[in-house]
Amino acid sequence: MGCDVGRLRIDETLDAFSRRRLLVVGDIIVDEYNTGEALGLSAETPTIVVRHLGVRRSLGGAALMVRNVLALGGSTVFISIHGDDEYRSDVERFEHPNLVKRMSAIVGRQTTVKSRYWVGGTKLLQWDRLDHGPLSGVAAEDLLSEIRRELADCNAIIVSDYRHGLISPTFAAALVGIAKQADKPIYIDSQVSQRSANHLWYAGATLFCVNEREARGIYPEFDSTDLPKTLAEIKTVLNAQSIVLKLGADGCCALLGDSYVSAPAAKVQAVDTTGAGDAFFAALSLSPVPLTAECLGFANRWAGISTTIKGPEPPNVAQIRAFVEGEI
What we know:
The chain has helices spanning about 10-20, 60-70, 90, 135-150, 170-180, 210-220, 225-240, 275-285, 295-305, 315-325; strands spanning about 20-25, 30-40, 50-60, 75-85, 100-105, 115-120, 120-130, 155-160, 185-190, 205-210, 240-245, 250-255, 260-265. It is built from ten helices and 13 strands. α2 packs across α8 (about 275-285).
């Protein structure tokens, strides 16, 4: 079936999502938001003195992608790591009836934490706790063994690589090999951020979901005036079956097999675009195969709704229903 989100198909689409079980592999990030009130300047140094008002934490990175899958009614087996530190409890509290966690707490490792400090509506500082050290061979093989065991009951492997040490070149190649051996699709979303593209680690994967910056890192001759040709070149470089290109406010386009398709962005009043990519990738990953332009359209709508929410929080089914009704 397709993923048309018309009034008569929304229930059918969500029902199809509810029958999908994804094996998600990726980095957990604990997002910490500190809020305060400015009191003035310090007498000793030219710095702002702030009275602390509160702090909240949520799970980001691959965990945010998983949270979107769960919000859409899908099921996941989530494979990841975290540190054996004070943030371990934040990961352990992450529970859902449709979630199976296969986590490894690595002794001596720092959980990835991104602390943001907001004063009067302005973000003054982001303070990241990072540990990009590679996993030991034993820890990596334990996770790969879990993946092999769980994959039989899943529809696909979904990789949300935030580049924080979970996935090495060897681990990435092993994931693609496991998927091929099990005859299951494997979708890749790997972040560039301040680092160079690593998509070639996953050469041979079924589908790559990229933004323009990531696409240029893979294929420096990227030509925005001829996207069908550009996507075909990227597809060849990565030995992939499909390439999906996220274009932000311009929606998205894709080369699905040999078919070029596009879908417009959702018409929303964006408040916060943080996490929109994870929302898009979650809806795309839940879509039954073969993917169609309608599937891309639904993913755009879900991602668009996510931008109307302050902070990286998934939308809910009631919101997508209301949005679709409003379009008709």
